[in-house]
Amino acid sequence: MARTKQDYADNGVEISKSTIGVGDEVTLYYKGLLVQSGAETVFAHIGYGENWDDKAFIPMERDDDVFKATIKIDHSDDLNIAFKDSGDNWDNNSWANYSFKVSKKAAKAAKIVSKEEKTEKKASTKSTKSSETKSAASKKSTATKSASAKKTAASGRTKKTSSEK
Question: Which parts pass through the membrane (predicted)?
Answer without folding.
Answer: none
